[in-house]
Amino acid sequence: MTEVKKTAAGGAISRRTALKGLAAAGATGAGLGAMPGFVPYIQAQSSAPIKVGFQVHRTGIGAAYGRWYDRTTLAAADLINEMGGINGRPVEIVAEDDGTDPKRGAEVVEKFASQLGCDVGFGTLFSHVVMGSAPRAGELKLPYFVVSEGHHVASGALNRWTIQPGICDVKSQVLAMAPFVSKNLGKKATMIFPDYAFGHDHRDFFTAAMEAQGAEVIKHIAIPPTETSYSKYFPQIPRETEVLYHVMVGPGVLTFVKELGEFFGPSHPPIFGFLDSLEAVDLNSPGLEFLDGTYFWEGMPRYLQSDAPDPVKFYRDRVGVDDNGASASDPKDVSTFAHMFGCWETLFVMKKGMEAAGYQTTADRQKLIEAVEAMEEMPFGDEHPQGRKVFNGKTHQVFGPQYISKVEGGKLVVQAETTAEDSFYPDEVDYTTQSF
Amino acid sequence: MTGAAKPVGLHALVLAILLALHFVLPDYHHGVLARVLTLATFALGYNLMFGYTGLLSLGHALFFAAGLYGLGMPMQHLGWSAEVALPFGIAFAALLATGVGALALRTQGVAFMIVTLMFAQAGFLTLLYFNEFTRGDEGFVIAQEARSLFGISLADADARYIAALILFAVAMIATLILVRSPAGRVLVAIRENEERARMLGYDVARYKLLAIVASGAMCGAAGAAYGLLFGYVGATFASVQYSILPLLWVLLGGAGTVLGPLIGTAFMTYLIDLGSGLTDAYMLLAGAALVLLTLFAPAGLLGEVRKRWAGWLP
Amino acid sequence: MDFGPYLVFASLEGAVLAATLSLTALGLSLVFGVMRVVNVAHGEFFMLGAVAAWFVSALGGEALGLPAWAGFAAALVLAPAAVGALAWAADRAILARVGYDPERTIVATIGLLYILQQLTLMGYGPEARPVEPPFNARIALPWPEWGADGFAWTWPWGFGTTSYKLFVIVAAAALLMAVWAVLSRSRFGLIMRATQYDRETAQAFGIPVGKVYAWTFALGAALAAAAAVLIVPIQQAHYLMGGDPLLLSFIVVIIGGLGSLRGTVLAALLIGMSDGVISVFFSPTLAKILATLLVALVLVFRPQGLFGAKTA
């Protein structure tokens, strides 16, 4: 390992000088400049677009989410460009599939930073991809705006370059739900969740939150992530259960909900679920009739509510979502409405941050992070249609409203809305004290 | 011995080219190649068992993950330094390979494939089950400050590349020495005709176990290095997909060739990377390429070269 | 739920899995036994069967206004036929050309797996889509109990099944009988078995081995597709659903012993039922770990499979 030092630091020819030499050769017509990925560094022109590297799940297990993250992101970028862009420059979305894989995710971040000349990285949803990519973003000093709802950012596991300003994390979502569940639905809860990190976050945070309310979780049922049929686990639900809490993700969720209905038949305890279970799934699918009368957490109401304010309608129109939360051009193409607003809002936060920082070139990346860290209040409006938000610059995490809806006649109707303050919890990290 | 001059010269040349590339590659490809070299070490380890000994395992993700977690867990939970955790990760993978080998080697052929697959699947599920410590599928990040060896930060692009190159060079030279040694020739003899090797008086079981332990250690080294160089430890690397990938890399490059794993890994990586720039359906391109290769280059890229022009390739 | 009903309940769930698994695994086993190749894309044929069932029933329901049962019945015929035809073409275009070499076939079918998955993602989309079952009445089951006042039937909470799940078990059993009849009674079955025993001799006797292989490959894929059509009203069609059936089928084929129809069915029963029953006793993920290790150890100590005779 000692020769590392020699080559890296004390060698006669360093990597930098060699690169410069070659770049010069390329510029003088040696042809190397024409190699893909070998573009000599060009200072961004004032009219050149700001490039947003968009890490999108187009293939792999996250593909259903990826499609709608894609549409929401493009809609927001179009709007920003209509509004005159950022600092007078248009925004260009540079999308690249990460296969919902942490290794490929890291490669894509490298590609954004080193080859495609992106100003920022953006848009990752699945938390293992965030975890796999964030270290590289930190090393490459690429501002990395994730839209993942994971607790990873606020837990302090990541770095100063990684930030989640457009979607609330799972811990705050769960904290905000516990009072409603314990007061209105029941004091003895049974939880069903997938046996991996996301499910365990729900288990830990909700159990603690229920206890803080004087209620309790009497049974945890962890379902193996490779499972495709669920009925055999339901007999473990204790008879005295007053409320059933479920959160499942992945392609098996419809089976899960259907089999739950078949297990209970006509009489079941009140049921509270996270809509993660049914994102991109039509509530009127065969077998889901039994959900009528059950409750769901929603990040943002999927069905257009009768009293919806204008910014909500504006957002729905721009993204191309009909009153039932499906694509305006194909009613069978149901959106991931409870999460995708995060892409829209994150892009507007980025815009604000770049404006505040006077962002011009990639040399201003650190200023951009500092500008976002300085943000606090984010008022409800076209830029934040999901609701008013409060950003915590220390933990790099945003807090906002959560919605509790009931299925009535095959539609989700909002019953209660919590505020950003309801979802606060003590800081677990202060990223602003970390070096860049 | 004149027979050794050509291969030794060739492999020295390859290492020299890889070192030269360090100075001239653009940033992006420099980073990609560092990853390719790390994963090619994984493929080299796989090749030792599959290419030279003829043992087709479908569970090598287990050994890669053993190195990855063997390094990552003590660093994360016990505060070990990388200097201690790295050899521990490799030793842990070798130990696991010994156990798996002792059991799995009682089977042959397809049963061997399934048994290795099952052990790897059990390993993957175990990582999920002990989520409290492993963070399951989400995995964990190894802090940047901890990722240094002897005072050199491996989060630095230059150091990372050189470290990956050293790792690969050590694994490649070890493979080269092994396959040219008498023990290596016994392994090939087992691949070609196990019965005959046994009748010649070789302790076939012992040699096979040797192959699986060496292979496990090499794959574990690649896994541990991956964690150290790229800072992420996650259960995805223990999933079936990462058992199939080394098989693909080796078959593409040429099973039973020393340089094949590197060529296969680089080929597949760039196929996906360049394909991804052209179309979302890059897996379609990858799939089509695999089918075409089996149709027209069944011995793998380097294997075809050896067959047609360069029979002396090791 | 009490222990007794729970055990029966879990076994019933296990039986549904066992039913579809035995069909899927039988397909793999035939290909493996006759052609001596491992078809890694077998799970994708299963997935295609489910996706085709969705297309047929959706088309039948929307375009032609057929009732759910008619759409389902059409899917049960058309989906396996279409998938079988695709497999036949894949055999002719790829497997025949690599000469059924074991290693090259593995790589080629991995390539095929990528291609089929990606094409399905592009043509069908990333969503999980349900197929409406032809009928699906919930059946509450009684449980015998000897209480203080003698014998009585009770109706434990949640103890029941659906008519469709029972249908899956019956339909899978009927299909298995049909396959068994074809293999043991028909001329095609005879030719297939002859090819399996000794390819060279079969060829010498004028059996067109190439054709037999293509039809075997098609039949294997069609069986997987049929299993998927049966299961898709319970689960949903999704482009990544092929992984699990492939793994499970592998296990079943090996445990059951190569090319043994009886062994395959018994092993499917064993795996399916134990999957249900073990979940009664252990926490779910731990149960999966134990079951996986158990399979591995069975193979280690009985490499010819539980039900297979020792073969060379």
Report the β-strand fraction of chain B as a percent range.
Answer: under 5%
Please report the first level of CATH classification, the CATH class of the largest domain in chain A.
Alpha Beta
Classify the oligomer. Answer: heterotrimer
The tally of beta strands of chain B, per DSSP, is 4
Second-tier CATH architecture of the largest domain in chain A: 3-Layer(aba) Sandwich
Report the span from N to C terminus of chain A.
27 Å
**Biggest interface, chains and residue tallies:** A-B, 53 and 50 residues
- What is the CATH superfamily of the largest domain in chain A? Response regulator
Q: Which strand order does the major sheet of chain B show?
A: 1-4
Strand order of the largest sheet of chain A: 7-6-8-9-10-16-17
What proportion of the residues of chain A form beta strands (DSSP E)? 15-25%
Q: Give a short account of the largest sheet of chain A.
A: 7 strands, mixed
Helix content of chain A: 25-40%
The end-to-end distance of chain B, rounded to whole angstroms, is 15 Å
The percent of residues in helical segments of chain B reads: over 70%
Outline the low-pLDDT stretches of chain B. none
Mean pLDDT of chain A: 87
GO cellular component, one term (chain C): plasma membrane
InterPro entries (chain C): ABC_transp_permease, BCAA_transport_permease
Protein name (chain C): Amino acid/amide ABC transporter membrane protein 1, HAAT family
Family (chain C): Belongs to the binding-protein-dependent transport system permease family. LivHM subfamily.
